Amino acid sequence: MNKKVLIADDEPNIVISLEFLLRREGFDVLVAVDGEEALVKAREEKPDLILLDVMMPKMNGFDLCQALRADHDLDDMRILMLSAKGRETEVSKGLGLGADAYVTKPFSTKELVLQVRSLLGV
Amino acid sequence: MLNGPVIVVASLLYLGLLFAIAWWGDKRADQGRSVISSPTIYALSMAVYCTTWTFYGSVGRAAVSGIGFLPIYLGPTLVMALGWFLLLKMIRTAKANRITSIADFISSRYGKSLLLGGLVTVIAVVGIVPYIALQLKAVSGSVSLLLNYPEIVMPGRSTALPVFADMSFYIALILAAFTIVFGTRHLDATERHEGMVAAIALESVVKLLAFLAVGLYVTYGIYDGFADIFQYAADDDRLRRLSTAIPSGQGYTGWFSLTLLAGLAILFLPRQFQIAVVENVNESHLKRAAWLFPLYLLLINLFVLPIALGGLLHFSGQGVDADTFVLTLPMAHHQEGLALLVFIGGLSAATGMVIVETIALSTMVCNDLVMPALIHLRGAALAEASDLSRLLLRIRRGAILVILLLGYLYFRLAGEAYALVAIGLISFAAVAQFAPAMIGGMYWRGGTRGGALAGLSAGSLVWAYTLLLPSFAKSGWLATDFLTQGPFGFNLLRPQQLFGLDGLDEISHCLFWSFFANIGAYVAVSIMRSPTAAEASQARLFVDALKYARPVGAALWRGLAKVSDLTALVGRFLGPQRAESAFADYAKRHGQVAIDALEADAELVHFAESLLAGTIGSASARVMVASVAKEEPLSASEVMNILDEASQLRSYSRELERKSRELEAATRDLKSANERLQELDRVKDDIMSSVTHELRTPLTSIRAFTEMLRDDPKMRLAERERFLGLVVSESDRLARLINQTLDLAKIESGNADWRGSALDLKEVIEQSVASTSQLFNEKGARVELDLQSGLPSILADRDRLIQVMLNLLSNAVKFLPLNAGRVCVSLRAGAQGLEVGVADNGPGIRVQDQQVIFEKFRQVGDSLTNKPAGTGLGLPISRRIIEHFGGRLWVDSVPGEGATFRFFLPFAPDNGV
Amino acid sequence: MRRGILTGERLVAVFLCGCVLFNYPLLSLFDRRVDLFGIPLIYVYVFTAWAGLIALMAWFTERRGE
Questions:
Q1: What is the DSSP track for B375-420?
Q2: Does any CB of chain B come closer than 8 Å to the CB of residue C61?
Q3: Domains plus CATH for chain A?
Q4: pLDDT digits 0-9 by tens, B480-537
Q5: Chains A and C contact (Cβ–Cβ under 8 Å for 3 or more pairs)
Q6: Is the model more confident about B174 or about B551?
């Protein structure tokens, strides 16, 4: 069975590129364009991994990460944070809130794919 | 009702009340809860200036010279305006040097001279004793008038009676007893009598009320107001001149002389010095006194002329003395209660003057005559006595008794004579002789002891020759030849036309010659030699009284002393207990536990001397301290050096204080500047972080798409074209972002290139709408124009306004519903300018977001599809452009009903509507 | 302190003003056989000027703050 990945980002073009990239790798891809939608979809679909943008409307990535980690139904889900904000404090904040990895934008597509694979153990 | 017992009982009750108040005041003072720490009480107590000479005498003077009596009150009014400087300096100096009388002031100023103190005391006693006699006469006169009620009988010559049957004698004794109890209950280093001051303030109120009562009664009770009295007076040939011509027989020179004389008297009469300087508890009280005391004087004089005229009209040809009108008018109209009130008012005026004057004189007699004599004659015996404080009290009490008996004696000798009637002004002229030495001493460092002695002697001799002796002659005690032909027939030496000076009234004449001699001798002798060390040091203390932060007296002493000698010395005069507690206080202030631990340094010696000075006068204190402390004399130049140092130190410390205040201020400024910088730094960080975030977002898409295109050569063509299209549009977005960021930075830093010209806004709008029509067509939206035409032009940059319009229009398009969108652009003229509106039928903007959208990088809305089109800088830039041209940009919106962005631009100034 | 100095200067001005008001020649202008409301002019003048000076002194010394 294919691994399921949820993309949570409000930038349409980034979503398009990520979707394309992950589909090509053979993952099932879901999309959410704001924090609240992402939380609902994560609970319903229980994806194996979520790609989480920090700057999102309605609920930002940090809050969402915290909410996801508080939900023990989702303990198996991996979280990869993606952000244009690359300062030390933000990276450690994300990891401190329970993200498994933190990638700054712009990212190398190859490295991102490797990162996703290793998180999912494939 | 008005009979002997009633009068006696009323008088005694009133004196009892005064005594109770004084006793209460002293008790409160001992508890440290002063009752006189009020500027009003201070001002009222100054009204001790108004004696029976005012209370009864003003009417008498007015009956002769019209308003010629007024300068006696105008002078003090004017001097009180200067009191801020003069009295303040006197108070400071007196406090710093523990000066307790005017004799002490002058003696202390000129090197603590015993001779000078004695001379001032003698002049004061000679000048003032007759004045006290006048008070006795007034009181006994008023009693005998009342006793004859309802008849009005002028008091006979009481000198016909033996002393022991003479009421005045007993009045003098009662007043002496009263003064002794008031003034010498105990010795005090500051010679303050708080209880007495409280009683004097009450007396001032009583005499004012009594006088106003008579005045109102005469003016409005007997007559029908001021105009009525003056009308009657105008109809009477003899009275007309009183109410119209100013100083009859006096001239403007006399008027001026009287003003000057009274102005000096308010400063230098011993009782005024006692009340205004010695009894002052707080310098700031001067402020109230500056106007309240003059107001008192005005009120007590308001009815003088009406009473005088009323009396002259009523008693015409009956031989009633005008000095008694205040009392006889109510009696003649059978106003018994009013007459009694007037009598009590007169008693107030007399007792107030007698008490304060006698206390002041007795202090001077004790400290500046008797003590120096005792020290001189019986120095050895004094040094052995263990407690001299009782002796001191006995001397004071004796002096009080003697002064009052002298007053009585003068009264008996002079009786109704001219010498008594005219004594008020003669006294004033006597104390005016202190003026050159006092004022010169306070403002001129060069004045010397010799100069002061010469001036005072010369001035007072001339005074005696030109004013006192003539008054004796006019009383019949001397041959009048002396007046008319001069002594031994020397015509030039006629006392009241000295050296042939004619045409002046006697007061002006005396004032001129006595001041001529006084000031001349003072200055001439002073400038003959430079001041000695003692004179120079005291001169600096007095002249610079307002400059030194604290007394520098201690610095001016060098020598050897023993603490036990000093405490014993002070103990002998103040009493061992008071001395003990004073020294214990001193020890505590200097951080020592016991008196024994003190060092007999210059400061302690100075402290001991100033304690003594308060009790026995500064000159005697200097002598007594010198007897136990071996002093090394300082030369004049050493004294000057020490004083210069003291004033330099003070100016250095002022300079230091100023510098440190400046430093503090600079530190505060730096701190706040630093805070502002840090705040700016934080803002800059936030902006940098926002800008980089905004730049990275399109960059991310571009990089992701290009990598995918590169890594996947087998990608389908359609996919490939789609991705390339996205790369292009993201590159566009990036470029736009960079441009706008730079644009905003330019506007914010003030470096933008603005071109201002008169514009037709309608044309600008039409062009903007035309160039965005493609955008609207793509979205299937409609644009409606509602533009007023023929409007005045506005002053702005055309390109910038188009930028704003494009921004607003493209913003509107973004949020329009597909194929149902409608945008309405309007242009209207207001009173001051034009208003443009861009209304859409989009989702609208929540109230809490309506300000946020004008902040940088703050896009609102969750429309995924529209996001890339905005940079988050369009609205902030637009707002700044509009504001640059003096307008406003804002949004009105109800969520769900669309939003309307509006801006207002003012008309160009040259065609303002 | 500055205020103290200013008050002092104002009071000196009152003094000088009074010296002029209450002396020849100004005084002689009012020494006429003229009545004002039935009261001799000189009487009205002296008391009015006097009250005015007192009011000025009160105003200068009693006002607070500044």
A1: HHHHHHHHHH-S--HHHHHHHHHHHHHHHHHHHHHHHHHHTTSHHH
A2: yes
A3: 4-115 (3.40.50.2300)
A4: 777 777 777 777 777 777 777 777 778 888 899 999 999 999 999 988 888 777 777 7
A5: no
A6: B174
Give the structural domain span for C9: 2-62
Question: Counting beta carbons within 10 angstroms of the beta carbon of residue B822, is it exposed (0 to 12), middle (13 to 18) or buried (19 or more)?
Answer: middle
Is the link from the previous residue into A106 a cis peptide, with omega within 30 of 0?
yes
CA A50 to chain B, closest CA, distance in angstroms equals 18
Q: Find where tokens 């736009």 sit.
A: B736
| A34 Cβ under 8 Å from any chain B Cβ | yes
The 3-class secondary structure across B82-110, one letter per residue, is: HHHHHHHHHHHHHHHCCCCCHHHHHHHHC
Q: Helix, strand or coil for residue A31?
A: strand
Quick check: B549 contacting C, CB < 8 Å? no
C-alpha to C-alpha distance for B243 and C38, rounded to whole angstroms: 11
The CA-based diameter of chain A, rounded to the nearest angstrom, is: 38
Distance CA B352, CA B51 (A): 8
Q: Rounded to an integer, what distance in angstroms lies between the CA atom of residue A23 and that of residue B692? A: 30
User: How many domains does the structure of chain C reveal?
Assistant: 1
What is d(CA A51, CA A80) in angstroms, rounded to the nearest whole number? Answer: 5
Per-residue pLDDT reduced to its tens digit, B556-600: 566 667 777 788 778 777 777 778 888 888 888 777 777 777 777
Both tokens of B731, joined, read 């590159």
Helices (H) and strands (E) in chain B, counts: 37, 9
CB of A101 within 8 A of CB of A80? yes
Classify residue C61 as exposed, middle or buried by CB count within 10 Å of its CB (0-12, 13-18, 19+). Answer: buried
> C18 vs B74: CB contact, 8 Å cut-off?
yes
Q: CA–CA separation, A89 vs B639, rounded Å?
A: 74
Distances (CA, A) of B359 to B157, B218, B708: 29, 36, 115
Strand (E) or helix (H) holding B825: strand B822-829
The predicted structure's pLDDT at residue B639: 58
Of B256, B290, B302, the CB nearest to C11: B290
Separation between Cα atoms, residue B681 and residue C13, nearest integer Å? 57
Interface residue B70 vs chain C (CB under 8 A): yes
* C window 2-41, beta carbon within 8 A of B: 7-8, 11-12, 14-15, 18-19, 22-24, 27-28, 31-33, 35, 37-40
CB contact under 8 A, B697 and A17: no
Residue in C closest to B251 by C-alpha: C24
Judge: B290–C61 Cβ closer than 8 Å, yes or no: yes
Please state, in angstroms and rounded to a whole number, the distance separating the CA atoms of residues B885 and B798.
Answer: 11
Give residue-wise pLDDT tens across range B244-289: 555 555 678 888 888 999 999 999 999 999 999 988 888 888 888 9
Contacting residues of B for C40, CB less than 8 Å apart: 230, 243-244
Averaged pLDDT of chain B: 82
Q: Are A19 and A48 in contact (CB under 8 A)?
A: no
Q: How many CA atoms lie within 13 A of B76 on its CB side?
A: 29
Q: Provide the pLDDT for residue B167.
A: 77
The 3-state DSSP class for residue B786 equals: strand
Q: What residues are paired with A83 via a beta bridge?
A: A104
Q: Check residue B913 and give its pLDDT.
A: 38
CB B222 within 8 A of CB B310: yes
What are the φ/ψ torsions at residue B909 (nearest 5 degrees)? -60, -35
Rounded CA-CA distance B867/A55 in Å is 13
pLDDT (0 to 100) of residue B910: 57
Reported ipTM: the value is 0.93
